[in-house]
TrEMBL record:
Record-level GO BP terms: D-alanine transmembrane transport; L-alanine transport; L-isoleucine import across plasma membrane; L-valine import across plasma membrane
Domain of life, per lineage: Bacteria
Family of the protein in this entry: Belongs to the ABC transporter superfamily.
One CC-aspect GO term: plasma membrane
Any Pfam family hit: BCA_ABC_TP_C
CDD domains found in the cross-reference section: ABC_Mj1267_LivG_branched
Entry keyword annotation includes Cell membrane: no
The protein, known as: ABC transporter ATP-binding protein
GO MF annotations, alphabetized: ATP binding; ATP hydrolysis activity; L-isoleucine transmembrane transporter activity; L-phenylalanine transmembrane transporter activity; L-valine transmembrane transporter activity
Keyword terms, alphabetized: Amino-acid transport, ATP-binding, Nucleotide-binding, Transport
SMART domains in the cross-refs: AAA
Domain ABC transporter, first and last residues per copy: 5-253
Length: 254
């Protein structure tokens, strides 16, 4: 089966620093794949290359059968690859529901004139955007906070809002950069349930960077380990957990 995302030879240099060196990665539809590795291994740099925030120095990124390396971020997002960031990035002064509407406006194809004259197609898009926002607020259990300013939400709720903000754009690949960072055990458990539900009930494919090894081992179908920018190992959670090189480079540290 052709993978949804197929990355080969991904390389990123910052001046003299080779941050990512020949990383390969395959993500199949409806899989949850995790990328792990010690601090500074190059995980976020891989995300930045995949999502168009960085132009990779070398390598091929094929998403849904199409080469996308070097495309700008907004074009990658429109193709259905959506990410969150290591640190929460919401429009903090907007309400919860406004955050979800803005995300959809950014990906809508309606023109400014259509908005100005409120054409029927524009009104239909607006209605659908509102319905999608309500639907995802319910799914991430934030419906009662719809009109609250985003900054007043608890940290775990802000994390869930970020995921809802991705989901309203109807992605096929959701990329989460350390989604459990700063969460308490209860919130981490809820996050795990949410990610599983997105895959099981919404046909979503997930690529995850995460340091919480319990979460990674519990949730992943496949794990890719990178160390100092280079691929170290990959396999099922069981295979990775028992790989001596991984234990030495990473798990041994925790
Ligand atoms: N924009 C940049 N300019 C220069 N160096 C960078 C840049 N971004 C990342 N790096 C360097 O690339 C290397 C990999 O960093 P990266 O953030 O990708 O690692 P990581 O595996 O995500 O780490 P962590 O788990 O700590 O988030 C590090 O040495 C980092 O300092």
């Amino acid at each position: 089966m052709t993978p949804l995302l197929d990355v080969t030879g991904l390389t990123m240099r910052f001046g003299g620093l080779l941050a990512v060196d020949g990383v390969a990665l395959q993500v199949h539809e409806k899989q949850i794949v995790s990328m792990i590795g010690p601090n500074g291994a190059g995980k976020t740099t891989v995300f930045n290359c995949l999502t168009g925030f960085y132009k990779p120095s070398d390598g091929k990124i094929v998403f849904r059968g199409e080469e996308i390396q070097g495309l700008p971020g907004f074009k990658v997002a429109r193709k259905g690859m959506i990410r969150t960031f290591q640190h929460v990035r919401l429009f903090k002064e907007m309400t919860v529901v406004e955050n979800l509407l803005v995300a959809q406006h950014q990906s809508m194809n309606t023109s400014m004139l259509a908005g100005l004259f409120k054409t029927p197609s524009y009104r239909r898009s607006e209605k659908e955007a509102m319905e999608r926002a309500a639907y995802w607020l319910e799914r991430v259990n934030l419906h009662e906070f719809a009109n609250r300013t985003a900054s007043t939400l608890a940290y775990g709720q802000q994390r869930r809002l970020e995921i809802a903000r991705c989901m309203v754009t109807q992605p096929s690949l959701l990329m989460l950069d350390e989604p459990a960072a700063g969460l308490n055990p209860r919130e981490t458990h809820d996050l795990k349930e949410l990610i599983s539900e997105l895959r099981d009930n919404h046909d979503l494919t997930v690529l995850l960077i995460e340091h919480d090894m319990k979460l990674v081992m519990d949730i992943s179908d496949h794990i890719v380990v990178i160390n100092q920018g280079t691929p170290l190992a990959e396999g099922t959670p069981e295979q990775v957990r028992n790989n001596p090189a991984v234990i030495k480079a990473y798990l041994g540290e925790t």
